Each structure stands twice: as structure tokens, then as C-alpha cells.
Amino acid sequence: MASVHEDGRRANKVWLGLFGAVVLVAIVVVLVLLFGGDDGDDDAASTTTSEVVETTTTTEATTTTEATTTTSAATPAGVTDQEAASIVWPDPEGSITYDDPIDAAAGYAEELVGFTDPLYGELMEGDSRSGEVEVRAVEDGPATIVLVRQMSDEAWYVLGSVTESIELDDPVAGTAIDDPLQLSGRARAFEGTVQVAVFERGATEPLGEGFVTGSGSEELGPFEGEVSWENPGGGWGAVVLYTLGGEDGVVWEAVSVPVGFIGGD
Fold first, then answer.
1. Has keyword Transferase (predicted)?
2. pLDDT at 127 over 50
3. pTM of the predicted model, to two decimals?
4. Among 117, 136, 195, 252, which one has the highest count of C-beta atoms within 10 angstroms of its own C-beta?
């Protein structure tokens, strides 16, 4: 009988062991399913998030590129401040514009300086946007060299003019002047007389006129002097020196420089 009871107890222990093993396996399976499922969801979420970020970034980059292209295609509305300070004729804010450098030189010579039916040479290019135009009162008269330049608004402007018979030391181009205007330099002319006029840019009526006296011979002679003029209190303009010659006393040759007027902002 003792042997039978002992065999029964052994059988019960075996069944209990098997049952415990089954329970343990079941717990492990449940844990694997739970944590394994979360990892899969996280991966899926991670993948989805990555795709959304990449799509958004691509869209923003495309939009930026289009905006940049539009900006670079813009056309300048006018001349720069630096360009404006170098202009004698015409006024960049006025109604007169020139598409041709010879026309710009002619407008300056006839409208501003006062040449009468002068002769014009070809454009002598300095570079693709600048050059010189020769102007003569008569065929065998002295040459006035008009300096022209095409600015950022694509129009042509006159920066001034030079001639062998008048060398202007003061004022220099870009100087701010006040009343009275102080002048110095060297010149030769009939009886040594060199006419002086101060113009507001774009205007053909002078703000003031006078003269200085250089040499009446073939050699250049020094001159100094002052000319009274009406200062508008700011803005830009030009100082023009010219001589008269020929049988009719017409404008013979001319020098000019751009200037500013003291009193502006």
C-alpha cells in the first residue's frame, strides 16, 4: 500500500510540473506578442513620420527656388545714386532719355552748352558701355570731346566734356559748390575770355553766369575767379566753361563737370 501511495504522489508531481511548464510557456508567448506588436507599431509610425518630413522638406525647397528665380529676373527701375552723381546731361529723373550715345552728345552740345549746328564724330568706345564723341563747331575748329556712358537703366548719359584749350582744376567732378563759385585752371581763348555758367541738372537756363580770363595767346595761361549764382539749396547740376569763336562768335569749345549744390539733405 505504501508503494501505491508513493507512486500516486510521484504522478501528481509530474502533472504539476507539466502544468507549471505550460503556464510559463503561455506567459512567455503573451509577453512576446505584446512587446513584439509595439515594436512593429513603432516602426510603422517611424516610417510614416519619416515620409511626411521628407515630403514637406521637398515642397519648401521647390517654393524657395521659384521665388529666387522671379527676383533675379527683375529689371532695374533707374540709375544708382553713384551713377546719378556723375551725370551732367540729361536729368535721369526727367522726361528726356537717349537710346543712342551720339544723340546724347548732341542733346548736351546743343541744348545745354549752346553749339549751333555742330559736326559730330563717331562713337569712340572705351568699353561696351562708355565712349567719347567728338564735337566741332566747324570742320576745322577745335574738338570738344563729350564723355558718354550707358547707365544701369540702359539709357545713355553725358558725364562731361574736355578740350585742349581749357583745363579746369577747381571745381572737380562731384564737388559740392556754393555761391559764389570758385574757379581755377588754365585756358587759352580769344582775348583770354572763358565764359562760365552754372546749370541745375536738366535745365537749360543757367542759375548764374560770368567769366574768367586765361591766355590770349597760343599757350595756356592760368585763371582764377569766382562767379555768383543762385543756389537752389540742394540737388545736382553742372559747371560749364566755354569759349566763343568763328566769324559769328558761336560756341567754339567747352568743358563741363557734374557738381552738387550745398544745402541739400
1. no
2. yes
3. 0.71
4. 252
